[in-house]
Amino acid sequence: MLRLLQLELQKLLLNRASKVLIFISFVLPFFIILLSSIRFNVFNYFTLEVGHYGVFNFPIVWHIVTFFASQFKLFFAIVVVSMVGNEYSNKTIKQNLIDGLSKKEFILSKFYTIIFFSALATLLVFIICLLVGLFYSSIDELHLIFRDTEFLFAYFIKLVGFFSLCLFLGMLVKRSAFALAFLFVLFILEWIIFGILAWKINESTATKIQNFFPLKSMYKLIDQPFQRIAISKAPNGQDFLYDFGVHWYEIAIVMAWTALFIFLSYRLLKKRDL
């Protein structure tokens, strides 16, 4: 495992574009800290500071930060599809196989890299949540501070699933730009199918079916936190109006898609004439 990971990291770090994109991927989440400290002067009447309105308090900070941090995943997605695209364009995939790397090991090296960077990104978000939460929250009880940390696990699974999809699309079309275009087409296709189902059956059933689609199931792992923020400001007894939790079956769906994407990537490589 370490040998395959080291081999892939060496390829990425020798590529200037990949290094820049990886750097951007890990720097962007820190803008959440910057956002929390920004002050808005509203027509010289009053000053609005986001962090002082309780949105970065424990335990809600785990939900909010993971949700916004997950929006930056597209930059590393470019790295993932480039990992495959460069292998084909530079003929290194053929050379690796000639040098003794099996097709299974080739796919695993990509997957291990995805897990490595996803874990690194999750650790980074964990640190950001702690820094922002400890600065703005008055809560100092450990069981409250670390409540809702399941959003970190959901964030990790979400990244691994999304990047595995990107790996499969990269293997499918062999070109980075086309793989990203296919990602956009898949997004549109999911909504078209949802629209047809809502028209033919009903919206409620269509939504339940849509939640099994690849991109939608990944999005559902961490629901948008805006309603939760509104609920936290509402009177007691309103917190059951909206289910914002992380559910085991949503994680299971994304893990199933992840396994399928890795398997299909391997099958494509195994059957393809290099």
Automatic annotation (TrEMBL):
The keyword rRNA-binding does not apply. One of its GO terms (cellular component) is plasma membrane. The chain crosses the membrane at residues 20-40, 60-84, 111-139, 151-170, 177-199, 248-269. Signal peptide: none annotated. One of its GO terms (molecular function) is ABC-type transporter activity. Keywords: Membrane, Transmembrane, Transmembrane helix. It comes from the Bacteria. This is ABC transporter permease subunit. It comes from Psychroserpens burtonensis.
